[in-house]
Design a protein that fits this description.
The structure is a single chain. This protein has 384 residues and is mainly alpha-helical. 54% of the residues lie in helices and 7% in strands. It has a two-stranded antiparallel sheet. A two-stranded antiparallel sheet has the order 3-4. A hairpin with a 2-residue loop joins strand 3 and strand 4. The radius of gyration is 28 Å and the shape is elongated.
Length: 384
C-alpha cells in the first residue's frame, strides 16, 4: 500500500505551516488585486475580461515557488506574451479549433524553451487564445496586450512587493559568492567533492527540464556534502579551540591605533566591542587595505569613501574603526560544534569568527587554523 501511495503521491520537501500560509495568502492578495486593477482599468463600458484564468496558475508559481526558474519575471512576461501571440496567430491561420489549439500549445512550448522563458501557465494562455470564444477572437492581437500582458504585469508587480516583504527575495538571484582572491583557485566550498563541471555533465546526460535553478541545485548538493562531513566528524565545540585572551577595539578607536594594535599583537582580525563588551563588528587586515586610504603610512578615510558612507546614511566618518568595520558580524557561541563553524567558514568565505556568550559579550575568537588544529588533535586522540 505504501509503495502504491508513493507512486500516486509525490515526495515533497518539508514546508512549514508559516510558509504554506505565506504562499496561500500571497496568491489571494495577488489575484484579488490583479482582478480589481483590471476592473478599474477597463471599467464597465468594455467587453474585455478583467482577469483571465491562466493567472491563477501563474499565481501558484509566483507566490508558492518564487525561486523556481519558471516563476521569474522574464518567464511570466515573456512566456505569457509569446504564447498569446502564437495562440492568436494560430487561431487566425488554422480554422479547425482542436488542431489550432494543439499547434498553439506545442509551438509555444518550443518557443519558450528556446527563448528561456518557460512558464507552464502560458500553455493555458495559448489554449485560451484559440478556444476562448468570440469575445477573445474579436480582440485579435489586442488580446496580447489586454488582458494577457496587463494581467501579467500587475500580478508580477504584486509578487515582487509581497515576496520581498515576507522574506522571499524576488526576483530570485544567484547566491552570493565568497570574496575572490583574484586567482584561479575556486572558493573553499568548491574544492571538496564534485566539481561544477561534474554537475554540468550530469545535467547534460539527464537532459530534462528541471524546476530548480542550476546554481540553487549546486548549492543544495554542496551543503548536503558539508553536512555529511559534519555527521561523520568528531564533536569538539568552539569553547575547546577558541582563543580566550582576545584583543579587541572599540568603534570609536582611531584607525591608526587599531592598526597599531593589530601589528603589535601580530593578529589579522580584531573584534569590535561596545562599552558592555558586546561584539558589534570585526575589523580585519582586508578592511584596512580595501576601505582605508594610506598616506605616509597612516590609514584614513578619503573623500570618495566619505561620500559613500554618508550616502548610505551612516554617521560622518572621522577616521575611526566604525568607518571600516564589518557590521553586523557573524558569530558563534562557545557550545557551537566546530563542524558548524567549518560550514560557516566554507560557505561564507570567512577567516575569523568571534565567539560570544548568551548576552552577546565577547568570549573568544576562532580562526580557520584553530579549527584545523583542533580536528587533527581530536582525530589523533580518537585513533590512539
Amino acid at each position: 500500500m505504501k509503495k502504491l501511495l508513493r507512486l500516486v503521491i509525490p515526495e515533497a520537501t518539508p514546508v512549514s505551516y508559516r510558509e504554506r500560509f505565506r504562499a496561500a495568502f500571497g496568491a489571494w492578495i495577488g489575484i484579488l488585486l490583479t482582478g480589481l486593477l483590471g476592473y478599474l482599468a477597463i471599467g464597465n463600458g468594455f467587453s474585455l475580461p478583467a482577469l483571465v484564468a491562466p493567472m491563477g496558475a501563474s499565481a501558484v508559481l509566483l507566490f508558492a515557488v518564487p525561486s523556481s526558474p519558471l516563476a521569474q519575471p522574464w518567464s511570466i512576461l515573456g512566456g505569457n506574451t509569446l504564447a498569446a501571440l502564437i495562440g492568436v496567430t494560430t487561431a487566425i491561420l488554422v480554422p479547425q479549433p482542436f488542431l489550432a489549439a494543439s499547434l498553439a500549445v506545442s509551438i509555444a512550448i518550443g518557443a519558450m524553451i528556446s527563448l528561456r522563458c518557460l512558464h507552464p501557465p502560458s500553455g493555458a494562455v495559448a489554449l485560451t487564445s484559440v478556444l476562448g470564444g468570440s469575445a477573445i477572437h474579436d480582440l485579435g492581437y489586442g488580446f496580447v496586450l489586454w488582458p494577457v500582458l496587463g494581467n501579467s504585469v500587475a500580478l508580477l508587480t504584486l509578487a515582487i512587493i509581497y515576496n520581498n516583504l515576507t522574506g522571499r527575495p524576488y526576483p530570485h538571484s544567484i547566491r552570493p559568492q565568497p570574496a575572490s582572491h583574484g586567482t584561479r583557485d575556486p572558493a573553499p566550498i568548491d574544492r571538496i567533492g564534485f566539481s561544477s563541471t561534474d554537475l554540468d555533465d550530469v545535467l547534460k546526460e539527464y537532459d530534462e527540464v528541471l524546476d530548480i535553478d542550476r546554481d540553487d541545485l549546486e548549492t543544495i548538493l554542496r551543503r548536503t556534502e558539508l553536512r555529511s562531513y559534519r555527521r561523520r566528524a568528531t564533536h569538539l565545540d568552539c569553547a575547546s579551540i577558541m582563543s580566550r585572551d582576545v584583543v579587541a577595539v572599540a568603534p570609536d578607536d582611531s584607525l591608526k591605533n587599531a592598526h597599531a594594535v593589530m601589528r603589535d599583537h601580530h593578529v589579522k582580525a580584531l573584534p569590535v566591542t561596545n562599552d558592555a563588551a558586546q561584539v558589534v563588528g570585526i575589523v580585519t587586515q582586508t578592511d584596512f587595505l580595501d576601505k582605508a586610504h594610506w598616506t605616509n603610512g597612516r590609514p584614513h578615510i578619503d573623500f570618495f569613501k566619505r561620500l559613500q558612507l554618508i550616502a548610505t546614511g551612516k554617521p560622518a566618518p572621522n577616521d575611526t574603526v566604525k568607518d571600516i568595520m564589518t557590521s553586523p558580524v557573524k558569530t558563534v557561541s562557545p557550545s557551537t560544534a566546530i563542524e558548524d563553524a567549518i560550514i560557516m567558514f566554507a560557505e561564507q568565505g570567512l577567516h575569523y569568527l568571534p565567539v560570544v556568550d548568551s548576552n552577546g559579550k565577547l568570549a573568544g575568537i576562532i580562526s580557520q587554523s584553530d579549527v584545523l588544529v583542533g580536528m587533527l588533535a581530536d582525530k589523533a586522540a580518537s585513533t590512539s
